[in-house]
Amino acid sequence: MDTKKNALVSMGILFAAILLIILSIVGKFYMDQKQFHNEMVKVVKSEEAKKEIELGLKNLDPKALTPEGIIKSYEIDYGSIEHNPMGAIMFDVIINEDDEFVANFDLNKYSNQLEVGGIVLSEKLSDLIHGRTGN
To answer: Are 60 and 76 part of one and the same domain?
Structure first.
C-alpha cells in the first residue's frame, strides 16, 4: 500500500513539474510576442513612419492633407498592426475619419531606413481617389 502511495505522489510531482515547464514556455512565448508587437507599434508611431505614411498618401493624392485634397486627414488604426511573414509591418490607415476609406500600408526597413513597401486601398477609397462613383 505504501509503494502505491509513493508512486502516486511521484507521478503527481512529475505531472506538476511537466505542467510548470509547459506553462513557463507558453508564458515566455506570449511575452516575446507581446514585446515584438510593442516594438512594431513603436515603429509605426515614429516620426519616420509618419513621414513615410504622408509621402504614400501624397503619392495617391498630390494635394493630400490640404484643403484642396481628396485625402483631408488620416488616422492609424493601431489595433490593426501585424507582422508580415516577409518582414514588413502591416497596418490600416483610416482616411477622412471614414471606416470605409481604408489604406492598408506595409512598412519595411531597407538599409536601416523605413520605407512604404506597398499600399492597398479599400474599394471605396480607390473609387474616391480615382473619381469613380458607386451605384
So the answer is: yes
Q: Could you tell me which residues come within 8 angstroms of residue 125 by beta carbon, excluding any fewer than 6 positions away? A: 95, 100, 101, 102, 103
pLDDT digits (tens, 9 = 90+) for 32-80: 888 888 999 999 999 999 999 999 999 999 999 999 999 999 999 999 9
Please check whether residue 69 lies inside any domain of the structure. yes
Q: Is-contact 116 106, C-beta < 8 A? A: yes
Q: Which residue has the cell 502516486?
A: 8
Rounded Cα gap, residues 126 and 54, in angstroms: 17
Q: pTM for the complete prediction?
A: 0.76
Count of structural domains, the chain: 2
Which is nearest to 83 in space by CA: 106, 102, 54?
Answer: 106
Nearest to 43 by CA among 110, 121, 108, 102: 108
